């Protein structure tokens, strides 16, 4: 089944009681049982809900996965993966990743005796110096947030399998439309469903997908035990959003390419970070493991000061200054003070994230209007 057909149909069946073509919102906290422990597969809604189950099947299908589990946020999903570990275990991850992930790893789980190595994963051989008998997980984010760095998933998987190490991939920036890490050997895929899967900036949710029965069992146990699960209304909204995912992603990719090339040719722009450029680091890997290059990019001004960057962001009219990404509307973001503020400044600077870096989430508006908005704002800098 092709992707667009799966987006519309996977996990969704007409309601057997009414024939409703859309999955009902099962707004209930509990379920009547015929006899103690004898029920229709549902006992308490924290453990399972029919609307959520349909969504989980849909997301799993999009990632060519066997099992999907939804959480109340992307961080809730990430949290469940780290809960697979024990004190003394070690994790290898990227030195360019979402600030919320960094905050959780450093401020929450290091206190419980889990050690994290933040390294340059754009060269997979850098992993070798950090792997030891305590290494249990590679946490990969590609393209990375916000510098759009590309990590070779298959190369990392190859190294992990030699040592029985799990590989989890944050696939939020790419979406399953552009990249399927399970097909490249990853054990777990994480999505901030809030972003492209939901697509309309009206839901907070996360998801994990795996083909491993034991991992699914363990992660489902964590989800039920710890309770970071989404409600049926949000599940319904994401099911609706997914039906247009392939159409939206086509437009995100088209607009992303147009805006990236416009910015690169502009006399007031310094660096533009977008994996579709032939000279973008690891572009060949992006071509190999992605179907297109997405609608996310970052850039700096040629007169690269925080004052100028702030003036530009304040001058935008169509682009909204806001956190998050992946919605139908275009957003402009200042990572240093917003999505990555939890990372110490010295760490940000060391890893290439300047105070004046600007990140764009390119929406599905007409590209000409987005360029006009950038043009009028740049004229004020």
Would you kindly provide a written description of the structure presented here, covering whatever features stand out?
This protein has 381 residues and is an alpha/beta fold. The chain folds into two domains: 3-242, Aspartate Aminotransferase, domain 2 (3-Layer(aba) Sandwich), CATH 3.40.640; 245-378, Aspartate Aminotransferase, domain 1 (Alpha-Beta Complex), CATH 3.90.1150.10. Helix content is 35%, strand content 15%. It has helices at residues 3-9, 50-62, 74-82, 99-109, 153-161, 175-178, 213-226, 232-242, 245-265, 283-289, 306-315, 345-350, 367-378; strands spanning 67-71, 90-94, 115-119, 135-141, 166-170, 188-192, 206-210, 269-273, 296-301, 320-321, 331-333, 358-361. Strands 1-7-6-5-4-2-3 form a seven-stranded mixed beta sheet, with helices on both faces. Strands 8-9-12-11-10 form a five-stranded mixed beta sheet, with helices on one face. The longest helix is centred in the last third of the chain and has 21 residues, at 245-265.
Describe the structure concisely for a colleague.
With 381 residues, the protein is an alpha/beta fold.
Fold blueprint:
Layout: H1 3-9, H2 50-62, E1 67-71, H3 74-82, E2 90-94, H4 99-109, E3 115-119, E4 135-141, H5 153-161, E5 166-170, H6 175-178, E6 188-192, E7 206-210, H7 213-226, H8 232-242, H9 245-265, E8 269-273, H10 283-289, E9 296-301, H11 306-315, E10 320-321, E11 331-333, H12 345-350, E12 358-361, H13 367-378
Parallel strand pairs: 2-3, 2-4, 4-5, 5-6, 10-11
Antiparallel strand pairs: 1-7, 6-7, 8-9, 9-12, 11-12
Helix pairs in contact: 2-8, 3-4, 11-13
